[in-house]
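Friendly challenge for the regulars: who can give me the structure tokens for this chain first? No prize, just bragging rights.
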Amino acid sequence: MTDTQTYVPEAGQPYEASFGDYVALLKPRVMSLVVFTALVGLLVAPVSVHPVVGLAAIVFIALGAGASGALNMWWDADIDVVMRRTKSRPVPAGKVTAGEALGLGMALSGISVVMLGLAANLLSAALLAFTIFFYAVIYSMWLKRATPQNIVIGGAAGAFPPMIGWAVATGGISIESVLMFGLIFMWTPPHFWALALFMKEDYSNAGVPMLTVTHGRKVTRAHILVYTLALVPVAVGLGFTSIGGPIYLATAVVVNLRFVLGAWQIWRRPEAAAEADSYAVEKRFFRFSLLYLFVLFGALLADHVLRLLTPSVLTIFGGFW
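First reply, four minutes later:
Bragging rights claimed.
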């Protein structure tokens, strides 16, 4: 993809980009998950952070996520234009030029990394810089078009935010932050493979070697089940660390049982049955996967709040004895 490769609206009329078009470049829906998991990583850490520092850190992490999205849209404009799911994005739709997307992505990358380093510490800034580089270069420019393992390895980019949030608070890395990383990393493949199953020929038309294209749907269904089963011990194991608790453990057990059941149903389905009901099971699994991380990270936060409140509650009740 080069700066000269731009796309124009179908009507061929001049279009002045709006503020919303530039916001769309940052992939705000993806950013919401990044911000939430980074915030949880920061809050559940054993070291408290001044609210101003914490707020600034989250803002700069969000800008870094947006930078990754803009760089991805710049590079992928040529394949986005032929995929139903992505053809309305700002660059392929002709609302923003590829050069503008590149410029915004590079500017936000520099600002977010430098400012996070100044506001928090060098480790968190280095992790953010590596995350942007991994998503924009390793995943978007290399893995995505080179191997069916693209989403497996590339999933690391989306798994770093809670580790960055933890590093903001502690200045280091621990088993807790590694397991939060692992939770997102292991969740990513079944989430995207479920999408690939019902997006039909999108990836094939775009020349992206997604597993459904290179190995077929039957193999993809088996991979979804295997990765979902591998996800369970990581998700449940997080509950036995210092940031886990009864709320998280109960939630993790219930949510993962439901996730495994969905993967099992997908694995057992022949393609003819899936086509007959318009991939209803696959779509339900994908929609549930969208909630999966929000629910589990929300449970981590709930246990953290419970730990904060417990001494106060005991003090209150102690006064009545």
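Residues 1-12, 313-321 have pLDDT under 50 and may be disordered. The CA atoms of residues 174 and 266 lie 35 Å apart. Your move, everyone else.
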